[in-house]
Hints:
By secondary structure, this protein is an alpha+beta fold. It has helices at residues 38-48, 108-115, 132-147, 169-181, 209-218, 239-242, 317-334; strands at 5-6, 11-15, 22-28, 65-67, 71-72, 75-76, 81-86, 101-102, 151-159, 162-163, 188-195, 223-228, 246-248, 254-256, 264-265, 268-269, 274-280, 290-294, 299-302. The strands form six sheets. It has a five-stranded antiparallel β-sheet with strand order 1-2-3-7-4, covered by helices on one side.
Amino acid sequence: MGVNTFGTRFCLTTFGESHGEAIGGVIDGCPSGVPVDFKMIEDELRRRKTAQDTTSSQRNEPDKVIFLSGIYEGMTLGTPIAFIIKNEDAKSSDYDNIKDIYRPSHADYTYYQKYGLRDHRGGGRSSARTLLPCVVAGAIAKQILHSININIKSFVTQIGEERSDSFSMEEIQEILQKVKDRHDTVGAIVRVEVDNVEIGLGEPHFKKLQAALAEAMFSINAVKGFEYGEGFKAASMYGSQCNDLFVRDENGCIKTETNHSGGIQGGISNGEKIYFNVAFKPIPTIMQTQKTVNKEGEEVTYNVEGRHDVCVVPRVLPIVEAMTAIAIMDMELYRF
């Protein structure tokens, strides 16, 4: 049914659970003859890695990717690229106390009702760890896009009620440490910018560029909102304020005077910078006693055990960039 596959031409299929033997993926549609920078892939996985600070999960995985096919002598073959990442530091016993209960705002209840059973260890398939294959595929897509001068960057603009044009890593850790001291978690907003996307990417109806980007973002755990350009702010603007007027630059090229549209008009890229915001809810696993029910419907309380993050940022940044790269790469190949 393809429910574990993202993309039409540049496709990623993922598999695995948080505490299974391994997680992994298969990339199909990658062009042949692409040189693969393995160090860059390792660097991207390191950006997402746990146990790098006091406010992230202390699960200490090596996160070494093992490629099984599709690459030979450092070059893509054009055939499916299969890879795995082994789980080596799973502590399944930390989750024994939630085997028969439904944690608030987690996927426990919906998974059980849909499938009739669930892997409770670390959240199983619903764990954010299962997004690692996206980082691998995204790193390869990034390399291809970089070769045509398309660059993707992301930064944190809001944590809880605190806002900034771009929080530094030191500022993020300072805020998150205060939240951790309260035994709580917090949400965040991430801004993404994509430079040098040429005019014409996207289709006018059912393959709109912003729809593909939104689908990619909503494939990421804990995402609650997506807006591109002025987004919801546009609802409070007048047309005379929001319209992007066309002008000629010093080279005689047609540009827009402003970029309220976020680089996309009519579902198609217009050559300006593409930008959008992604809102993440607070991580639902909090270090406080909570009320819930068990499989029998009985009211119970539970306390969290195990290793958990305080917020999705900053570790979610490489995932957001990866899914953006996969979506853009897919649309690039779709054009042809």
